[in-house]
Amino acid sequence: MRMRYLAAWATGLILCAGLPLSQPALAVTVSAQNSPGAENNALLQRLSHAHWVAQGKGPRILYMIFDPNCPYCHVVFDELQPLIKPMGVTVRYVPVGYLTESSPGKAAAMLEAKNPLAAITKNEREFNMKRFGGLAEILPNPATEKALEENLAILRATGQSIVPTLIYRSRQGKIVIIRGGLGKRDMRSTLREIAP
């Protein structure tokens, strides 16, 4: 697992090198914002109407904004898999496509797939450090293009365009925004904090 994090970190530095510093694409560190304010409640409301794909049927809802070519998103996806069912979580994956040239086409392929969750899973199962996400890109139709623009606008509304971004309502009623990846122990404790 440690080697995978190091590989993801190195790739993240390479990806970030070509992007504007004002909008870092990947985060090595994790930051959290706890606020019950109206602005964050509005953000959660927007997310509930976003173009997302659900996995799991638990009462705890976690939103994950991700890019198909993001190494950190890939690691978080893998960490979530064994925890979704036993911890009673529903993950709502919110795809965006801005990290690399093929990101929009891969995100579109997810949203336009007959089985979007299967498409996301294929993308992550076949993820590698040469071409990143394993899904073939497509030319999005106008509706999908608009959906991806709306998803990206929600990501920007969090204050920073960093993927992955995890968002949920805590047991204390606060909206929590976490940018970047989490270790296994942190992921488990984070999922416990989500309000059922």
In short:
The chain is of the alpha+beta class and about 200 residues long. It has 7 helices and 6 strands; from the N terminus they run H-E-H-E-E-H-E-H-H-H-E-E-H.
Q: Can you count the helices?
A: 7
Percent of residues in helices: 40-55%
- Biggest sheet overview: 6 strands, mixed
Category from helices, strands and their pairing: alpha+beta
User: What is the strand content?
Assistant: 15-25%
Main-sheet strand order equals 1-6-5-3-4-2
**Quaternary status of these chains?**
single chain
Radius of gyration: 15 Å
User: If you average the pLDDT, what whole number results?
Assistant: 84
Please write the string of helix (H) and strand (E) elements. Answer: HEHEEHEHHHEEH
Low-confidence region ranges:
1-31
Distance separating the two termini:
30 Å
Number of strands: 6
Give the overall silhouette.
globular
3D architecture notes:
By secondary structure, the protein is α+β, with helices and mostly antiparallel strands. Helix content is 42%, strand content 16%. A six-stranded mixed sheet has the order 1-6-5-3-4-2. α3 links the parallel β3 (60-66) and β4. The longest helix has 16 residues, at 2-17.
